[in-house]
Specification:
The protein is mainly α and about 160 residues long. It folds into two domains: about 35 residues; about 90 residues, Fumarate reductase/succinate dehydrogenase, transmembrane subunit (3 helical TM bundles of succinate and fumarate reductases), CATH 1.20.1300. The radius of gyration is 27 Å and the shape is elongated. The relative contact order is 0.08. The model has no long low-confidence stretch (mean pLDDT about 80).
């Protein structure tokens, strides 16, 4: 082949390779399409630099009280996790308490993830949809724990059977 023909082919390939759509994966394009639902101001700033920051109203479900309640929940796990290992199966009340605390701990963790990664100001109704799905899943899991406790051998004994299987 002639050198001029090769140069033309290389420039065509180079032009095709430099298209921005090739560098942006399909998943990123679909996420960018979803973000267009709620228009955001540039930089996420509303007002001017001289406007005071809006202080949110106080809430008992946020802040240090919420954090303290979560830490107490975690501390409550310690004896409930050690007891089945030390002495075998728990009685039904402690076994149910272990299951309920574990479910509550998981619910609070997933709720924090939803609040952090699916913010209402960006995703709008999808934030509420994710929270409703979490509440439905938690209620279903609570019903399942109730069934295991009342009609089966309990959570600690079930985990023990799976562990020794």
């Amino acid at each position: 082949m002639f050198r001029s023909t090769l140069l033309k082919q290389q420039s065509t390939l180079l032009t095709a390779a430099m298209r921005p759509s090739l560098f942006r994966p399909a998943a990123a394009r679909s996420v960018m399409a979803v973000r267009g639902f709620i228009s955001q101001p540039p930089g996420g700033i509303v007002g001017t630099v001289n406007d005071p920051v809006a202080i949110p109203p106080p809430s008992k479900t946020h802040g240090s009280l919420h954090w303290t309640a979560e830490r107490l929940l975690i501390i409550g796990f310690v004896p409930l996790m050690v007891a089945p290992l030390a002495g075998g199966a728990l009685n039904p009340v402690l076994d149910g308490t272990l299951g309920t605390l574990l479910l509550l701990h998981s619910h609070l963790g997933f709720e924090s993830c939803i609040i952090d990664y699916i913010p209402k100001r960006v995703y709008g109704p999808f934030h509420n949809l994710a929270l409703y799905a979490l509440y439905a899943g938690t209620a279903t899991a609570l019903f399942g724990l109730y069934q295991i406790e009342t009609k089966d051998i309990g959570i600690a004994a079930t985990v023990g059977k799976i562990w020794h299987a």
